[in-house]
Design a protein that fits this description.
By secondary structure, the protein is an alpha/beta fold. Helix 1 crosses helix 2, helix 5 runs parallel beside helix 6 (154-164) and helix 14 runs antiparallel to helix 18.
């Protein structure tokens, strides 16, 4: 059944106590009086709950009336007032909210808290158009895809229509920074000026939360190592008495790779649920309770698709019931969905199982020599098994014939690993007392055996099998070749309103690629006009005299170009590459030739490098894929983005190769339908790091002459904003001059007219 067309009971009840738009708003010199969206209070005491639900379901849409015309808002309203038909002509439009002189502008005139809103509101035509598109999708119950560039103000353009819908809506983002912006800035602004009764919950994965039970157990046991860990534990214990959420994001002193946190987090693997003595004050339980009561639930894509995958396997769910979804940063949906609808094991999972089993046995005082030998054997067998994989780092196909040959050659090690898991499960089952903690560990062991069998012995047609060695980790993975059918059935056919938005969804002005990859058959779509004056704010430099990127002379010439560009921009640049080897090579060629502070990805955590770049004058950062998106450096600190080559995915990558092969077998053109569009969206993301505000100006440089020489180069140019364009470094120098303008250069547009 399509959710939303026939509303769930919660949404029907929510429609009874939804939000009515206040059109006759008067704003004093201080704050807005009573808010812009006021809770509608049902006053139908003589009507049964079932009757109210049925009536709400029949209307199947929220109706909005001015508060002063809504008799249900008054304390002395007549008994049947809630059933009075709304005055259609009084329905406010999104134009009254986002248009010139609208409610947002009135909030700005009235003044607002600068700590919750980072900049003054200004009328933006694209924001109004987006709000109208999203509002229409919620009202008419259809899907919508909206490409909205930086500066559109798209978060408010989907949040307000979502609130007005009267439905529980999930907002899913790709990055933590956007989650924080929503919860710490946009939501408080809306609650203060528009929806004072709005309830919002942020949901994160369980590993983000402290387990009170583990904290208490560890206080009584000597399981801490060294003074540093003891000191960190004391700080965490003090914090646990003060925190309301238990979210590790509050622990700014704790490093990302903290081993201590792995012993204290609330992962499902070691959770005993309602049997836990700390279930009621549990931080994860608190998160779920807040979500159950919320109008909006903010999650990241990882948690959303983890929940969707659980529902597919009938393993319950993580998120409470909801009837609509908004995906911001929707260009990342395919990759994240591929992860969560796939299967993976690693040597780390076996190590963690043995570690958790050891720790639990000791905490429960059941650590007999016999049981501890079982966990040690799992460690030994898993290390022996994963050492059988080739030592070179990288991702490699693991086709059926390769897996069969691997098993034939290493059957003894494989069987020994499986037997060690079974042996521990049997020993746990033989215990007279069977604590819930050990039952869960035995279940994890059983699930690991199932995953191992699937990854080495199955042959599902829609999966590509591969392995990766990365530093000390070996990962065996099966990834869906095509997630479109999964998403079509599990998402777009299950929910009647799914909104997708991002700055990078179109290729050549069309949504065909994203529709095909995600299985979206029916949706309204719109690419909104940019809010920035790209011809004046950005100049695209395309050098003519460069060797082909595959030529042996390319790195040396690329280094020359980068050095010249950095001298003109006085540093202040990102140099982005499509592989670590290219990044490292160019870094070594350039670093000794410039006087600017030069930073390299991999020498410090990503967040540390980004902060260092922002706070270091004239800095230059050499980076790869993770800096192509989700990075925001407004202002002059970032004045140049240099990309060495068109960001085509590596054709030998197992997932890319499998998807190319699948399209070929289907009689389609994988280069035109998959590889080029994917590279176009990646380039748009990379270039999008530069212009983040109307006052930003800067230079984009692409050192790959295929953009100019090859027929597909036209698709890239048609997909980019209308940057100014030049082939001459002298034009770059003029553009960067404080008094220069792109108009003075006679620069061409990057997009054909």
């Amino acid at each position: 059944m399509r959710h939303g067309v026939s509303w769930r009971r919660e949404d029907a009840a929510r429609a009874e106590e939804g939000y009515a738009i206040v059109t006759g708003l008067f704003i004093s010199a201080g704050e807005s009086k009573g808010g812009f969206l006021a809770k509608r209070i049902s006053n139908s005491a003589g009507e049964s709950p079932v009757a109210r639900i049925n009536r709400a379901a029949k209307t199947a849409q929220r109706e909005y009336v001015p508060l002063e015309d809504d008799p249900t808002a008054a304390g002395n309203a007549p008994e049947d007032a809630a059933d009075a038909p709304a005055n259609e002509s009084a329905k406010p439009s999104m134009r009254e909210v986002f248009g010139p002189g609208g409610f947002l502008e009135k909030c700005m005139v009235a003044g607002f808290d600068r700590s919750t809103v980072s900049s003054d509101y200004e009328y933006r035509p694209a924001q109004l158009e987006m709000a109208e598109l999203v509002h229409d999708a919620f009202e008419s119950h259809h899907h919508a895809i909206v490409e909205a560039g930086t500066g559109t103000g798209k978060t408010l353009a989907y949040l307000l229509p979502a609130i007005c819908s009267g439905r529980r809506v999930v907002i899913s983002t790709a990055t933590k920074s956007l989650q924080e912006q929503l919860y710490q800035k946009d939501i408080p602004f809306l609650q203060k000026h528009f929806a004072p009764n709005l309830k919002v919950a942020v949901m994160k994965g369980r590993a983000n939360f402290l387990c009170i039970s583990k904290l208490n157990q560890m206080s009584d046991q000597g399981l801490l190592k060294g003074m540093e860990e003891l000191d960190a534990f004391r700080q965490i214990k003090d914090w646990s008495r003060l925190t309301e959420t238990g979210d590790r994001a509050e622990l700014t002193f704790l490093p990302d790779d903290s081993e201590l946190w792995g012993k204290l987090d609330a992962r499902r693997d070691t959770c005993t649920g309602k049997n836990c003595p700390s279930f009621n004050p549990c931080f994860v339980t608190g998160m779920h309770q807040r979500a159950q009561e919320a109008d909006l639930i903010i999650v990241n894509h990882h948690l959303f698709f983890a929940d969707l995958a659980l529902k597919q396997d009938d393993f319950g769910s993580i998120l409470p019931e909801y009837s609509a979804v908004v995906f911001d940063e929707a260009h990342e949906m395919e990759d994240v969905a591929s992860d969560y609808f796939g299967r993976q094991i690693s040597n780390f999972r076996f190590e963690e199982l043995a570690r958790d089993a050891d720790q639990t046995l000791r905490l429960l005082h059941l650590g007999t020599p016999s049981l501890l030998r079982k966990t040690q054997r799992i460690r030994e067998r898993s290390r022996g098994f994963f050492e059988l994989f080739p030592p070179r780092d990288g991702r490699f196909s693991f086709l059926r014939n390769e897996r069969e040959a691997f098993l034939e050659q290493n059957r003894e090690a494989y069987d020994a690993l499986v037997t060690s898991l079974k042996s521990m499960e049997t020993e746990f089952a033989a215990l007279t007392a069977k604590p819930e903690e050990l039952t869960r560990i035995a279940r994890r062991s059983f699930e690991l055996r199932q995953e191992l069998s699937f990854l080495l012995e199955s042959n599902e047609r829609n999966f590509v099998y591969w392995y990766e060695r990365r530093n000390k980790g070996v990962f065996l993975t099966a990834t869906p070749i095509d997630v479109s059918q999964i998403l079509r059935e599990r998402l777009f056919e299950q929910f009647d309103t799914v909104i997708l938005t991002s700055a990078t969804l179109t290729v050549g002005g069309r949504f065909d690629y994203i529709r095909q990859r995600l299985g979206i058959d029916h949706a309204k779509d719109r690419a909104l006009p940019p809010e920035f004056d790209y011809p004046k704010q950005a100049l695209l430099y395309l050098p003519r005299k460069m060797p082909d990127v595959r030529d042996a002379g390319f790195p040396a010439k690329a280094a020359d170009e980068i050095v010249q560009l950095l001298e003109l921009t006085r540093g202040r640049a990102f140099c982005l590459f499509t592989s670590y080897s290219q990044m490292n090579d160019l870094f070594e060629r350039v670093r000794s030739r410039v006087s600017f502070p030069v930073m390299l990805q991999g020498t410090a955590p990503r967040s540390v490098l980004l902060e260092r770049f922002k706070n270091t004058e004239a800095a230059v950062l050499f980076a790869t894929a993770s800096f192509w998106q989700g990075v925001d450096v407004p202002g002059e600190q970032l004045s140049c983005v240099i990309v060495d080559r068109l960001p085509f995915a590596v054709p030998s990558d197992p997932i890319v190769a499998a998807r190319v092969r699948a399209l070929q077998e289907d009689g389609r053109n994988p280069f035109a339908e998959f590889q080029v569009p994917q590279a176009v969206l990646s380039l748009k993301q990379g270039f999008g790091r530069l212009i983040r505000a109307k006052t930003d100006r800067g230079v984009l440089a692409l050192l790959d002459t295929r953009l100019q020489r090859m027929p597909y180069g036209k698709i890239f140019l048609e997909s980019l904003p209308r940057y100014g364009m030049t082939h001459e470094l002298t034009d770059v120098a003029h553009f960067l001059d404080a008094n220069g303008t792109s108009g003075r250069l006679g620069a061409k547009s990057a997009s054909p007219s």
